[in-house]
Amino acid sequence: MADPRICAALLDVLEQNRPRQGNEGNLQPGLILGEAARALGIRRDQQAEQDLLTEWQDLFRTGYLAKGARGNFR
After folding, report:
1. Is 27 helix (H, G, I), strand (E, B) or coil?
2. What's the pLDDT at 52?
3. Once rounded to an integer, what is the mean pLDDT over residues 28-45?
4. Deepest of 7, 8, 42, 71, by most Cβ within 10 A of its Cβ?
5. DSSP designation for 67
6. How far apart are CA 9 and CA 25, in angstroms?
7. How does pLDDT run across 1-27, given as a tens digit for each residue?
8. Sign of the C-alpha dihedral computed for residues 68, 73, 62 and 15 taken in this order
9. Partners of 67 in beta bridges
10. Please, is 69 exposed, middle or buried when counting C-beta atoms within 10 Å of its C-beta (0-12, 13-18, 19+)?
11. Start-end of H helices in 1-74
12. d(CA 40, CA 34)
């Protein structure tokens, strides 16, 4: 079972970087994953980084995230 801290960290970073009125936001995968890894303190921990990537993919698989017309995440 996935660590619930990972999902919470991803969702927090997504919320902090989401587009707002007058701001396009920045939801590039590298930025989101990097900030979430820093928040979790898992840099250079291969298993934890793999768990983070798995959780990221699960957000797409379950429909929580989807790519938009210009490659942006919604």
Report:
1. coil
2. 96
3. 92
4. 42
5. B
6. 17
7. 578 999 999 999 999 988 777 767 678
8. negative
9. 73
10. exposed
11. 4-17, 29-40, 46-61
12. 10
> In angstroms, how far apart are the furthest CA atoms of the chain?
39
Of 30, 25, 23, 27, nearest in space to 11 by CA = 27
- In the block, residue with structure tokens 């009125």: 21
The DSSP call for residue 64 is S
Q: Considering the chain, what is the average pLDDT of its residues?
A: 85
pLDDT on residue 40: 96
**How many Å apart are CA 68 and CA 24, to the nearest integer?**
13
Give the tokens for residue 69.
């017309």
Tokens of 4: 């619930």
